[in-house]
Amino acid sequence: MATSRNYQTQGIILKQTRLGEFDKIVTIYTPEFGKLRAVAKGACRPKSKLGGNVEPLTHSLMLLAKGRNLDIVTQSQTINGFLALKSDLWRMACGLYVLELIDSFAVEGGENRPLFDLLLEILQQLSEPDNSEIALRYFELHLLHYLGYRPQLRRCVDCDSPLKPVVNFFSLSKGGLLCPRCNSEENRRHEQTETISGRPSMPLSVEALKVLRLWQGCDYATARRVRLKPELSGELERVLCDYIRYVLQRELKSLSWLRELRRQMASL
Ligand SMILES: [Zn+2]
C-alpha cells in the first residue's frame, strides 16, 4: 500500500550505472516527475526480482520509497520490454539514441507529460517494421517543441517576412529560418567580425521545409506517410541534428554510433 514515504509511478528506464557490487542507479523518465534517479538495490544479483524490469529501454510500473538522497525502487513490473526493438541492432541503436536525447535535455523533477507520451509512442513505433528515420526526425522535431526550442519555419527570424518557396537558410543560433536576403547580410556581418566558429547557417531546400512544416503540425500517423528520398532524408537529419548539437553544445555518443552502424549496413 502506498504511504507518504512510498509512491508508485510508471516510467521508461533511460540509463543505469553500477553502484557497488550488487546495486545500480537507474535514471527513469516518468510522466509525473519528469526525470528522476533512484537506487535499485540488489538489481545486479543473478536472481534479483528487479533485474530486467529496470534495464534501459523498458517501460515499467514501479514502487519507490523516499530516500535521504536518492529514492529507492522497491518493486518493479515490466509494462513493455520492447523486445522487438532490443532484438534488432539498428532499432536498438535508434532506441538508445532517443533515450540519450531525453536524458540530455530533461532536467530532474521537470514534469513534461507530452514529452513522456512522445517518447513512449516513438519507442513503440521503433519496435514496428516502420520507417525508423521518419520516427527519429519526428521525435527530434517534437522534442525541440516540447522543450521550448521549436524551430521557426514560417517567417524569417530576422525581418519577420513570410518565407518564400525558395532555398532559405537555417540559423542555428536563432533557431529558425533566415530569408536569402537576411542570410547574406548575416554572413557579411560574420565575415567582418570573424567571431563565428563554424557555419552560422545552412541552406534548407523547399522540399525539406515542406516536410518539416507538415511534421510540426501533424500526428505521427500522418507524418509516417511521407515518402522520403535518401537525399531529402539526409538533409532533414543534418538540419535537425546540427540544431540539437548547437542547443546541447555537444555531440551525442549514440548518434555517432547510429551513423557508423548505418554506414556499415550500407556497405554490406
Ligand atoms: Zn529576412
Counting helices, strands and paired strands, the structural category is alpha+beta
Which small molecules are bound? zinc ion
Radius of gyration, in Å, reads: 21 Å
What average pLDDT do the residues reach? 92
Uncertain regions spanning at least 5 consecutive residues: none
Proportion of residues in extended strands: 15-25%
Number of DSSP strand runs: 8
Largest sheet: 5 strands, mixed, barrel
Helix share, percent: 40-55%
SSE string, helices as H and strands as E = EEEEEHHHHEEHEHHHH
Trace the largest sheet across and list its strands.
1-2-3-5-4
Q: Give me the number of helical elements.
A: 9
Distance between the termini: 54 Å
Shape designation: elongated
